[in-house]
Specification:
The protein is of the alpha/beta class. It has five helices and 13 strands. The chain has a six-stranded mixed β-sheet with strand order 1-2-3-4-5-6, covered by helices on one side. It has a five-stranded mixed β-sheet with strand order 7-8-9-10-13. The model has no long low-confidence stretch (mean pLDDT about 95). Its cofactor is Zn(2+).
Length: about 210
């Protein structure tokens, strides 16, 4: 059985998720900032990370990527449509805000192209391309465990913003309806910000849907 732990990191409290198994292996999703807090949690739990997985490449999801990648010597996975975003502040959004430094992260080690099953160690997950918030937004679904990490595609009672580069409300709503709401109704959806939800709850009460 997998265990999932959440850390709220960085200036906009982005959710970073640590998914671990009984072998003490883990995956790191969206380490937005504060690499020391991630390392402290992994040390406390005696976990060995296998990879960093990014739902997308906006600045608030990538700030601690290089520090953690270099410390643990693990690969970073990202959708190929955002291959240039990590190192370009005008694309990852950090260049939009004068109060923020420019985020320039090294290239991803593995570029994801197409929807498929991804296997890392004993972890098995379905990759769902869910564009709209950004062109390469990914959902990492664990159907046997009944949860999915959805990034900024869907929130409890809301949806991701679409006013950033290459955002599209039409594509976002299509992604939600065809990829997320078709998951098992009780699947726990873990978003990039805020509390978790389920497809059943969002179909019933989300005013955007």
């Amino acid at each position: 059985m997998l265990k999932i732990e959440q850390l709220e990191l960085g200036p906009v409290q982005t959710n970073c998720y640590i998914v671990s198994n009984e072998k003490k292996e883990c995956l790191i999703f969206d380490p937005g900032e504060e690499e020391n807090r991630v390392r402290e949690l992994l040390k406390k739990r005696d976990l060995k990370p296998l990879a960093i997985l990014l739902t997308h490449a906006h600045f608030d999801h990538i700030g601690a990527v290089d520090a953690l990648r270099d410390f643990y010597e693990i690969p970073v996975y990202l959708h190929h449509l955002e291959r240039d975003w990590l190192g370009r502040p005008n694309l990852n959004g950090s260049g939009k805000y004068a109060a923020l430094p420019d985020y320039r992260i090294k290239d991803a080690d593995v570029l994801i192209n197409g929807e498929k099953e991804l296997v890392l160690g004993s972890f098995r997950m379905d990759l769902l391309h869910t564009p709209g918030h950004s062109p390469g937004s990914l959902t990492f679904s664990f159907p046997e465990e009944r949860f999915a990490i959805v990034g900024d595609t869907l929130f409890r009672g809301s949806i991701g913003r679409t006013d950033l580069i290459d955002g599209s409300e039409t594509k976002l709503l299509q992604s939600i309806r065809t990829s997320l709401l078709t998951l098992a109704a009780d699947t726990v959806l873990f978003p990039g910000h805020g509390p978790d939800t389920t497809p059943a709850e969002e179909e019933k009460s989300n005013p955007f849907l």
